From TrEMBL:
Domain of life: Bacteria
Protein name: Uncharacterized protein
Extent of the signal sequence: 1-24
Sorted UniProt keywords: Signal
Amino acid sequence: MNSVFTKIIAIACTATILQTPAFAYQIPEQQEKFIEVVSNAISSAKGVDNDMKLGGIKAKRDKAVCKTLSKDKKVKNWVGTVKTVSANSDGYGVLALEIAPDIEVKTWNNAFSDSSHHTLINPDSEIFSVASDLKPGDMVSFSGRFIPNSKDCILESSMTLYGKVTEPEYIFKFSGLKVVQ
């Protein structure tokens, strides 16, 4: 129960901070719903004693996530905090944003994993130019699309079921990025 309360407070604080005059930026309703669905699954997974229960939580979450997103999985002007700004060995940009506690939206970090999704950021792009000036902790507004996945609705990169549910890292193709001031 304590972790549920903690997550609710964290979401409320994030929403409050992002809506204060210093930031003057409101989280889109679609993002709020997405965060609520995923955070509820994270809270439900704490203390689960077997993988079957965890799998049930994940399946329920994945269905609810699909209902919050459009068919093309595109989002516009969502808000996040920079967690990682890097590049792969070919110089393509790697970006990870935290949109709420324990929920990340990110590119792949290597060309092999990215071979069919093309999420790595081209060094000749405007997004690369903006992203390369960012540092962890910066707040940004972003647009793009989640990578569709027939099994899970959208692609998530964690290696374990527990990670997929408690600290999801959703793979994302960025189409717009700007610093929120």
